[in-house]
Structures are given as C-alpha cells and as structure tokens.
Amino acid sequence: xxxxxxxxxxxxxxxxxxxxxxxxxxxxxxxxxxxxxxxxxxxxxxxxxxxxxxxxxxxxxxxxxxxxxxxxxxxxxxxxxxxxxxxxxxxxxxxxxxxxxxxxxxxxxxxxxxxxxxxxxxxxxxxxxxxxxxxxxxxxxxxxxxxxxxxxxxxxxxxxxxxxxxxxxxxxxxxxxxxxxxxxxxx
Length: 187
What we know:
The strands form two sheets. The protein has a four-stranded antiparallel beta sheet with strand order 4-3-6-5, covered by helices on one side. Strands 1-2 form a two-stranded antiparallel sheet. The protein has five helices and six strands. The protein is of the alpha+beta class.
C-alpha cells in the first residue's frame, strides 16, 4: 500500500511540474528573446541602409562613395538637431547619408556610429565619420567595402592631408579600399 501511495505521489508531482512548464511560455517579449529579436531587426536595417546608400545608377558614384570622396576628415556628432563637427561647430554635415540616418535611426531612437577603415603603410587605420558615443553590449555591426579609384580623387594632396587616406598603390588605378562600418544600438 505504501509503494502504491509513493508511485501516485511521484506521478502527481511529475504532472504538476509538466503543467507548470507548459503554462510558462516564452514569447518574443521575454527579455532574452526580445533582445535577440531587436538585434536582428537592427542588423537587417543596417544592411538595408548600407545597401541603399551604396546603390548607384550606371556610370555614377553611389551616395556612400560620394560621402567618402567629399569627406573633409572631421568627425561629426548628432547634437539633437543636426550633425556638427567636433572641431568646428559651424561645419554641418548634410547629404543623402545624413538624410538616411535622420529617417531611419534618429527618428527611431537608435544610436549609431559610422567609421571608415582604410589601408595605409602601417596596416589599417579606423577613423570616425559619425560618432554618437560608446555602443552598448547589444550593439550590432554591419560593414560594406567601397572601392575608391584614382579617377575619383581630384586633388591627391588635399585629400590625403584632410582625411589621411592615401593611395595604396601608385601603379594601379585603385586608390584605396574603404571598409564602412555601421554600429547600431538602442538607447
């Protein structure tokens, strides 16, 4: 009789545990899956942004390539209204890249950094183009490579002086390869 009572009690305990586990569901709103879902969405958004900026009609430069070519070497920071230079506050960044960030990230409360990594004599260097602080632990990073040709640069000396991006091979038409790295995170 005691054995039968023990088996019934054990069965009852197993049924209670199974019921409790099934009643507790994991939804997309639980913390661990919510973070993974948001990070996945930000990654896709970052990929889409860089793809859209790097698209170009036949025979023209993309908006991303134009931003690199026209860059003055300064680091820009979002001040709540516009992207201003760290060094010269009267220097305001504008153009399709800024329009894309204002529509996609600023309006949605997503912080972002945009960096250019390029090759020089010592290896590779990374420079901030747009800087909005240190990313959080749940930041996502998206990158895209942009090729700059010798014909894209009008004044080599001025471009090298302002951006520090030099010609990696004087014997070819390739000027440099820029790795554009976009970091996105929720505030």
